[in-house]
Amino acid sequence: MTMFWTIWISVITLGLIIGCYFLLRWCLGNHTGVAEGESMGHEFDGIEEINNPLPKWWTILFYITIVWGVIYLALYPGLGSWQGLWGWKSSNQNIQSLEESRQARIDAKEQGLIVEYDRELDFAAEKFDPIFEAYAQVPVEELAKDPEALKVGQRLFLQNCSQCHGSDARGQAGGFPNLTDDDWLYGGSGEKIKETLMMGRQAAMPAWLDAMGEQGIDEVVAYVLSLSGRDVDAELAAAGKPRFAACAACHGADGKGNQAMGAPNLTDNIWLYGGSKRAVTETLYYGRNGVMPSFKNTLGEDKIHVVASYVYSLSN
Fold first, then answer.
1. Do residues 273 and 178 touch, judged by C-beta distance below 8 A?
2. 278 CB-contact burial (10 Å; exposed 0-12 / middle 13-18 / buried 19+)
3. Helices 147-160 and 116-135: crossing angle, nearest 10°?
4. Which of 96, 105, 190, 309 could bridge across to 143 with cysteines, CB 3.0–4.6 Å?
């Protein structure tokens, strides 16, 4: 924060506290022209207003509030770039990566700073890590039968995976697969799901426009659509079949895909980027390079194990 904003915030904040003090002092004086205990000359519904001073307990509470405000601002950060005498802060600021976050935690401990977020992380680790360690000892397929573990896995899924796959895990257009339909690019076993979460996935569908040309792509699209029983131009499909040999290296000669490479099955009418003629043509024109990020450093293996059990349960 710049010096301008530090001064701006400090002047306004301290000015209000000082203003409250002088306002209280003024209210304690008698400025009515009527002696204390005398009538103010107002009466309503049988109730007469008397010129009485503020109750002492009320006045004392006002003073305590003002003093506490000054002490709080001295101990804690709040006045612009002022960091406070106590060395407390809510979190490490200006963090842009997990590595920076870890280093900031180490630096804060070495400097004796009190970082509330770090304290909460330490508390959570102490309380919950043993639970996740116990879950990690159970195979994914078996853990998927544990209702309590599934509740934990669901919460982790909603926090970390639902942004792409949806809160119902049914995916969405644009390359985010449905996790409930038992159709898996890289395999749907417990270990494969865990591997995907641990290491992430990088798609590598190349663009074929330069190699095949527009006519060649039209022919291959017709053949690919025919593999899933679609009505297509028979002549185009026939011309596309020999061209499909270039695709068979990944998708197989029968078009049923290859889970070892993440190449999808082209015969089941399940399409990651859409199965319309236009969508398939676009895929061949420009290729696809979707990315599934690795959560190894974000969640850790034990938590990933629980998430994998939840994802496994969705289609089993």
1. no
2. exposed
3. 140
4. 309
Q: Are strands 291-292 and 201-202 parallel, antiparallel or unpaired?
A: antiparallel
CA–CA gap between residue 204 and residue 82 (Å, rounded): 50
Query: In sequence order, which ranges of the chain are alpha helices (DSSP H)?
Result: 3-28, 56-75, 98-110, 116-135, 140-143, 147-160, 162-165, 190-199, 209-227, 234-243, 245-251, 277-286, 296-299, 301-314
Per DSSP, the three-state class of 80 is coil
Residues in Cβ contact with 31 at an 8 Å cutoff, skipping those fewer than 6 apart: none
- What does residue 170 show for φ and ψ, rounded to 5 degrees? -90, 10
Vertex 255 angle, CA 253 and 259, to 5°: 100
Partners of 176 in the beta sheet? 172
Q: What's the predicted TM-score (pTM) here?
A: 0.76
Angle at the Cα of 21 from the Cα atoms of 17 and 26, rounded to 5 degrees? 145
Tell me how far apart the alpha carbons of residues 73 and 138 are, in angstroms, rounded to a whole number. 50
Q: Which domains does the chain have, with CATH numbers?
A: 139-201+298-314 (1.10.760.10), 209-289 (1.10.760.10)
Going residue by residue through the chain, which has 316 residues, state the pLDDT in tens, using 9 for 90 and above. 688 888 999 999 999 999 999 999 998 988 888 888 888 888 888 888 888 888 999 999 999 999 999 999 999 988 888 888 888 888 888 888 888 998 999 998 888 889 999 999 999 999 999 999 999 999 999 999 999 999 999 999 999 999 999 999 999 988 899 999 989 999 999 999 999 999 999 988 999 999 999 999 999 999 999 999 999 999 999 999 999 999 999 999 999 999 999 999 999 989 999 999 999 999 999 999 999 999 999 999 999 999 999 999 999 8
Phi, psi of 76 (to 5 degrees): -110, 155
Cβ proximity of 66 and 21 under 8 Å: yes
User: Residue 305's closest CA among 200, 195, 201?
Assistant: 195
